[in-house]
Design goal:
By secondary structure, the protein is α/β, with parallel strands linked by helices. It folds into 2 domains: about 120 residues, Rossmann fold (3-Layer(aba) Sandwich); about 35 residues, no CATH class. The chain has 6 helices and 5 strands; from the N terminus they run E-H-E-E-H-E-H-E-H-H-H. Strands 1, 2, 3, 4 and 5 form a 5-stranded mixed beta sheet that branches. Strand 4, helix 3 and strand 5 form a beta-alpha-beta unit. The structure holds flavin mononucleotide. Flavin mononucleotide (FMN) binds next to helix 1, strand 2 and strand 4.
């Protein structure tokens, strides 16, 4: 059984998840996805989907068992995580089998909050902006140890073969 972990992480959140996976399967890791039986595909969320870089990678994978993982700024809504997972899974060739998925919230750059705050100054009545600022604050601590532990436990229950 060989495992390959492919991911894109700009600010390190998704890398934290990738490191949990790499540690779990340290003895099975290969660098080339073509040699792997199982490919873990991870991405940060860019405009509601995998990053462009990971979209390209995902579309190339054939005949593998695939586990999809990622982080996103918008948290606290399991349905959103499901939607992100389904969009990522839809990138895959039909010859692959999806064996699992995991998403959690990931902190965003401070510039995002600054943009919300200046927009709120222009539109103080905008409740959506207030909610976005609250979500930004909540995201700051993620991925947290519980997010990583939940992934680790999910992997413990995962059948690779
Ligand atoms: C340009 C840009 C677009 C983003 N788009 C979304 C999005 O559509 N939905 C979302 O929930 N988070 C979005 N985010 C937040 C990131 O996906 C999130 O902070 C992620 O954890 C970053 O992962 P990384 O540290 O692995 O790069 C966006 C961030 C940036 C910089």
């Amino acid at each position: 059984m060989k495992v390959c972990v492919l991911y894109d992480s700009v600010t390190g959140n998704t890398r934290m998840l990738a490191e949990v996976i790499e540690k779990k399967y340290a003895a099975l890791l290969v660098e080339n996805p073509a040699e792997a039986d199982v490919v873990f595909l991870g991405s940060w969320t860019d405009k509601g989907s995998f990053s462009e870089k990971m979209k390209e990678q995902a579309e190339k994978i054939q005949g593998k068992k695939v586990f999809i993982f990622g982080t996103c700024g918008f948290g606290g809504n399991p349905e959103y995580y499901e939607r992100l997972f389904e969009r990522a899974a839809a990138l895959l060739d039909e010859s692959n089998t999806v064996i699992g998925h995991y998403y959690c919230q990931g902190k965003m750059p401070m510039a995002v909050k600054e943009r919300y705050v200046s927009m709120l100054r222009e539109h103080p009545e905008d409740k959506k902006l207030e909610a976005s600022i609250q979500n930004f604050e909540e995201a700051l601590s993620h991925p947290d140890p519980e997010d990583l532990e939940r992934l680790s436990e999910l992997l413990d229950g995962l059948e690779l073969d």
